[in-house]
């Protein structure tokens, strides 16, 4: 499957995959967060503008529920002159990041503009992490079931892989390692949680997500992230 074949998954989306109650909770939390973090977002925007100029935001097409693509918003972490066709992953100590970008990566404040995606109904507060089109072909072999659920700002996979950049072996091809190890590990976590999720459980993961930002985060279960295949 490539980016142009995403529509084949639209039939797997259940009309009850998110629900009215969760949507209402998303809007309330997103509105409250937008108000609370508005001063911080203004400071970040001004800092980015002073450091490197425009653009302030980074936008990228991601895979949404049912394979529908949407534009996801983040604060820019990389230098303005970075090659837009560069590595699709952010690595530990990535040289493309600016000083402010490193702070945003550490705190996850670069994700705050995604509150707009929540307001638009493209994302939820809790849901699987939306993948870039580069990895759209990973949704196969049963993993396409993840596309039944609206992508979210946080959730079990995001919390457990809070420091994802540290999982990459130095000798591994990062794209191949993500495709063969990290993506399947995160997809299995999503598929073990979302089919039986409850609103109470979602609220617990919201709290765990907040703790993860503070550095209080659990690691993935032992054995879930297996070593890369020999020869990678």
Reconstruct the topology from this structure.
Elements: H1 20-52, E1 57-63, E2 69-75, H2 99-107, H3 114-119, E3 124-126, E4 152-154, H4 156-160, H5 174-193, H6 199-213
Parallel strand pairs: 3-4
Antiparallel strand pairs: 1-2
Characterize the structure shown.
- This is Sugar transferase.
- Belongs to the bacterial sugar transferase family.
- One of its GO terms (biological process) is polysaccharide biosynthetic process.
- One of its GO terms (molecular function) is phosphotransferase activity, for other substituted phosphate groups.
- It comes from Mesorhizobium wenxiniae.
- Helix content is about 40%, strand content about 10%.
- The chain has one domain.
- The longest helix has about 35 residues, at about 20-50.
- The protein is mostly helical.
- It is globular and about 45 Å long.
- The strands form 2 sheets. A two-stranded antiparallel ribbon has the order 1-2.
- The chain has helices spanning about 20-50, 100-105, 115-120, 155-160, 175-195, 200-215, and strands at about 55-65, 70-75, 125, 150-155.
Number of strands: 4
Secondary-structure-based class equals: mainly alpha
Report the span from N to C terminus: 22 Å
Q: Give the tally of structural domains.
A: 1
Radius of gyration: 17 Å
Shape field: globular
Determine the oligomeric state from the structure.
single chain
Poorly predicted segments: 7-16, 227-232
InterPro entries: Bact_transf
GO molecular function: phosphotransferase activity, for other substituted phosphate groups
Transmembrane segments: 27-50
Keywords: Exopolysaccharide synthesis, Membrane, Transferase, Transmembrane, Transmembrane helix
């Amino acid at each position: 499957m490539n980016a142009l074949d995403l529509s084949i998954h639209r039939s797997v989306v259940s009309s009850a995959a998110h629900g009215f109650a969760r949507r209402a909770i998303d809007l309330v939390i997103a509105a409250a967060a937008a108000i609370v973090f508005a001063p911080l977002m203004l400071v970040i925007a001004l800092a980015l503008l002073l450091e490197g100029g425009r653009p302030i935001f980074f936008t990228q097409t991601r895979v949404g529920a049912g394979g529908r693509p949407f534009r996801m918003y983040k604060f820019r972490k990389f230098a303005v002159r970075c090659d837009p066709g560069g590595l699709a992953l952010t690595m530990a100590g990535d040289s493309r990041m600016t000083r402010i970008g490193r702070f945003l990566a550490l705190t996850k404040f670069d994700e705050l503009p995604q509150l707009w995606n929540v307001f638009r109904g493209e994302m939820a507060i809790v849901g699987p992490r939306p993948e870039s089109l580069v990895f759209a072909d990973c949704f196969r072999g049963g993993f396409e079931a993840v596309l039944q659920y609206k992508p979210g700002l946080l959730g079990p996979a995001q919390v457990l892989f809070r420091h994802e950049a540290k999982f990459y072996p130095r000798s591994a091809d990062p794209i191949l390692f993500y495709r063969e190890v990290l993506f399947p590990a995160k997809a299995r976590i999503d598929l073990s949680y979302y089919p039986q999720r409850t609103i109470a459980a979602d609220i617990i993961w919201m709290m765990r997500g907040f703790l993860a930002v503070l550095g209080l985060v659990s690691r993935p279960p032992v054995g879930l992230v297996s070593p890369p295949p020999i020869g990678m």
